[in-house]
Amino acid sequence: MIRKTKKTDYIKGNRISLLLFMFVIFIVSCNLAEENQDKQQEKSNKNVAVKSLGKQQVKSGMKNLFSREELIEMDYPFGKYTNDIPLGDTDIEWERSNPDIQVFVPTGSGFYNGDNEHFLVFKAPKGEELLALWTQSSVEGRGDNHLVLARSSDAVNWSEPEYLVGAKYAKGGLQASWGFPIVSESGRIYIFYTREIEVFDNNRQGSGTMGCIFSDDNGYTWSEPKDVKMPRSKYDNPNVKYPKNWIVWQNPIKDIENKWIAGYTLITSESVKKSEKNWVNTDSRCYFMRFMNIDENPSPENIKIEWYPENDEGLEVKNPVYPQMSVAQEPATVLLPDGRLFTIMRNMTGFIYYSVSSDNGKTWDVPQMLRYSDTGEGIQHPMSPSPIYKLSNGKFVLIFHNNSGKRFGYDQADKEWDINVSNTVRNPTYYTEGEFKQDAKQPIWFGEPVEFLNTGDIAVPPKKSAEIGTYPSITEFKGKTILWYPDRKRYLLGKYLDFGE
To answer: Which residues lie below 8 Å from residue 228, measured CB to CB, with a gap of 6+?
Structure first.
């Protein structure tokens, strides 16, 4: 039997269909609105602000870059170094200094690769690309230092670092530390480094022979490690079985005669003079090595080096805390327009010191305080590397911390340390432009300091340091000046610098 549809049934059915249709439209509209809101929120979360200082809270992806004060108020959610220095979220802290380039950011536990420093970027000799060399480890002093190399054709996108030499992952072995490159005229890349041997003097990572590897194919393959002979000093252990205590940290430069010259720190053996409390109070001097035949592509054992200053008289700066010792370390050197060499060094006075050589490093003036000008104030700086670079426009740029080693009530000159004070005084980082003054007593004068790197005084593992900009390097590549800097000895980053004409 077929049922006939009444008019009232037809109207009722239409009403139900209309209601169902309107309900579906409503649900779809709600979902679209919610989806659009989520997209807007995600877009907002991805906008990373320039700084996170004071009470400002910066969003990074789906996480927040909290300020130092907020982290303290939240009762140190990621831990703390001291009550004044909270730890931050290692996943996002690399963004705090607003880098333009991300070279290497370790992930996971950081075992074997969590500590990254002595970050030396240089132009590859064959082809338009940059090479980045650095010392990597689980954490400084752990005993697994090794050298790695990364590369980039555009200075922005970088390869994963490749192991070169030193302690191996999960296997240990003898360390390779503080490598520095020199490139011959024909394009052979030499890398020299402090090579740990079976016996050491003061400590494992700072004591060793001068190891060397080289590459003739732009750094893709490398020779087996060999040693370069180093002369003994009156500051070395009298027992010759113990190696020297030495370190080079900055890219070498060429002198007026086109010879490569590298400054290095010579640490006095504990067998000659005992260090005092705190690692900064160690007897030390600045020396120089001048490479005489690198452009002939010699094998490591045939490399000829002249060792300066003559007569084993390194550059000294009296330690005001312990006047019986010199603390002068990590010379950074530039070539002046008149052919002289100008070097600056870290020390314990609270100021940078400098010296000048008129004979390619054989002899040097007595070091003295670096000032903004001949009659200007001294340039304040703690016991930290203070690099200086010469740019292609003839100007100079000095990188420093603009404090005398005192912050948060900590003082590097205190004889008793509760913490490693250097982890607090190496922040923020400034630069100042320098100009050559031919007739001045101090041949480079500097302008006003400009702050450009800041961790917000927030530390990160593994070293739990709040420092930034220590052991950097600089390149001028494809029209851009880039400072390559370690951030808290964990992240390796780059920032464009614009100094104008």
So the answer is: 192, 209, 210, 211, 212, 300, 301, 303, 305
pLDDT band at 30 (very low <50, low <70, confident <90, very high): very low
Range of the domain at 229: 60-497
Question: At a CB cut-off of 8 Å and minimum separation 6, what does 379 contact?
Answer: 351, 352, 369, 370, 371, 372, 398, 400, 402, 432, 446
**Length in residues, the chain:** 501
DSSP string covering 244-309, please? PBEE--S--EE-TTS-EEEEEEEEPPTTTS---SSTT---EEEEEEEESSGGG---GGG--EEEES
What is the per-residue pLDDT for 234? 98
Whether 42 is in a domain gets the answer no
Backbone angles phi and psi of 398, in degrees to 5? -110, 130
In three-state secondary structure terms, 348 is coil
- Name the region of 27 (left: φ>0; alpha: ψ -120 to 50; beta: rest): alpha
Please check whether residue 89 is in contact with residue 96, taking contact to mean a CB–CB distance below 8 angstroms. no
In one-letter notation, the amino acid at residue 465 is S
Give burial (CB, 10 Å; 0-12/13-18/19+) of 208: buried
Phi-psi region of 54 (alpha: psi -120 to 50; beta: other; left: phi over 0): left
Tokens of 226: 């060999």
Cα 346 to chain centroid, rounded: 16
**Do 482 and 474 contact (CB within 8 A), yes or no?**
yes
Spatial contact of 189 and 218, defined as CB atoms under 8 Å apart: yes
pLDDT tens profile 221-255: 999 999 999 999 999 999 999 999 999 999 999 99
The answer to whether residue 148 sits within a structural domain is: yes
* Other C-beta atoms lying within 10 Å of the C-beta of residue 69: 15
Cα 226 to Cα 24, 49, 109, 192, 195: the distances in Å are 77, 48, 33, 10, 10
Helix (H, G, I), strand (E, B) or coil at 312: helix
DSSP string, 124-170: -SSSS-EEEEEEEESSTTSS--EEEEEEESSSSS-PPPEEEEESBTT
As a whole number of angstroms, the distance between CA 40 and CA 456 comes to 29
Q: Residue 2's pLDDT band (boundaries 50, 70, 90)?
A: very low
What CATH number does the domain containing 332 carry? 2.120.10.10
Spatial distance between the Cα atoms of 272 and 109, rounded to a whole number of angstroms: 40
Is 383 inside a domain boundary? yes
pLDDT band at residue 79, thresholds of 50, 70 and 90? very high
Determine, yes or no, domain membership for 31: no
CA separation for the pair 70, 87 (Å, rounded):
11
Q: What is the mean pLDDT of residues 4-19?
A: 43
Q: Measuring CA to CA, how many Å separate 72 from each of 48, 60, 86, 411, 458?
A: 22, 19, 7, 22, 10
Q: How many domains does the structure of the chain reveal? A: 1
